[in-house]
Amino acid sequence: MFKSIMQWLAFIGLAFFITACSQEAPTKPMVVVEGATMGTYYRVKVVTEAITDVASFQAELDKRLELVNDQMSTYRPQSELSLFNQAQQSHTVSPDTIKVVQQGIELAQLTQGALDITLGPLVNLWGFGPDAKPKQMPTAEQIAARKAITGVEHLTIDGLTLHKAIPELYVDLSSIAKGYGVDVLADYIESMGEHNYLVDIGGELKMKGHNDKDLAWRIAVEKPVTTERAIQQVITPGDNAVATSGDYRNYYEENGERFSHMINPSTGMPIKHKLVSVTVIDKSSMISDGLATALMVMGPEQGFAFATEQQLAVYMIEKTASGFTPRYTEQFKPYLLTEAK
C-alpha cells in the first residue's frame, strides 16, 4: 500500500516573499489583499495611495481569477478545458484558453516533451490528479496504455477551436495556468497605473518596482526540506516573474521507495534523479512556471545544459552525499543578493 507524504507545507510555494528583510520602517502605504484560488492561496501587495476601496479592488482580482478557473480548471466539470476533455473531437473555447494552450504546445516543443500538457492520464494514474490515490503501483501495461493517449502531437488549434486526434486526449494546464493567473493579475494592476507591486499565487511570483520601504522586492528560494521553512538563497528579481518547482513535498513511499509527483513523459514514471528544486526568472510568470517544471523533469545535467543553451536565468538545487548543492546559470547571477548589495 502506498503511503502519501504531503505535508501542510505542500500547499505553500517553494519561493516566498520575505516580509522582514529590513529593520527599516515602511515609508510608503501598501495595500495587501489575500484569498484562495486554484487550490492554493493568492496574495497581492501594491505600494500605492490610489487604491482606497480595497474591497472593490479585491473583488476585481477575484473576478479575474474566477474566470481563469472557469476557463482552465480540470476540477470544474463545466470549465472550457473540462468540456474539451470530455469531447470526442473538438470544442470551441475563449481566446485566453487558446493563448495558454498554445504556450503549452510551444513549451512542449522547446523542451522536447519534458513539459507535456497532455500528461494528465499518467499524473492521474499515479494518484496526483483528480483520480483517487492508487492502492498499488501501476503496472507496465497500465503505464503503456496511458502513454498511448498522451502527446501534444495529438492536439491542434484552429482559430478558437481545440482539436484532438484521439478521443481520450486530456489536457491539463496546471503546469502553466497558475503562472498565467499571476500574469493576469499583474496586467490588471498595471492597467490601473500602478508600478510597484508583488503578485503571489501559491509561490508563483511576479513583481515590479519597490516595496513599501522603497527597496527592491526580495524573494527567498526555499531550502528543500519538508519539516520547516528555511532560506536557501535570497534573490532580487527586479521587474520579473519567479517560479520554483520541486519534488520534496508531494510524493509517495512504497516499500521504502520514493515516488515523486513529477512524471517524466518519456517513461511515464515519476522522476528518479537527484535534482530537488529549480527556480526560473523570466518576464512571464506563465513561461517561468512551465520551464521550472520542464527542467525538474529533465534532471540536473540535461536541465542545466538546456538552461545554458537557451540562456535562461535558472537556479538549481541538487541532493548530494554532502547535502544540497546549488548551481546557477550566468543569467541568474545578477539576481543573487550578496552582502555587497
Topology:
Elements: E1 3-6, E2 15-17, E3 30-37, E4 40-47, H1 54-72, H2 80-86, E5 90-92, H3 95-110, H4 120-125, H5 140-147, E6 155-158, E7 161-164, H6 174-191, E8 197-201, E9 204-208, E10 219-222, E11 231-235, E12 241-246, E13 250-254, E14 257-260, E15 263-264, E16 269-270, E17 275-282, H7 285-298, H8 300-309, E18 313-320, E19 323-328
Helix pairs in contact: 1-6, 3-7, 6-7, 7-8
Q: Report helical residue fraction.
A: 25-40%
How far apart lie the N and C ends? 51 Å
Overall pLDDT level: 87
Q: Structural class of the helices, strands and pairings?
A: alpha+beta
Secondary-structure element order, as H and E?
Answer: EEEEHHEHHHEEHEEEEEEEEEEHHEE
Instruction: Report the strand count.
Output: 19
Q: Write down the overall geometry.
A: globular
Strand percent estimate: 25-35%
Largest sheet strand order: 3-4-8-9-12-17-18-19
Radius of gyration: 20 Å
Largest sheet: 8 strands, antiparallel
SS element count, helices: 8
Taking pLDDT < 50 over at least 5 consecutive residues as the criterion, the unreliable ranges are: 1-21
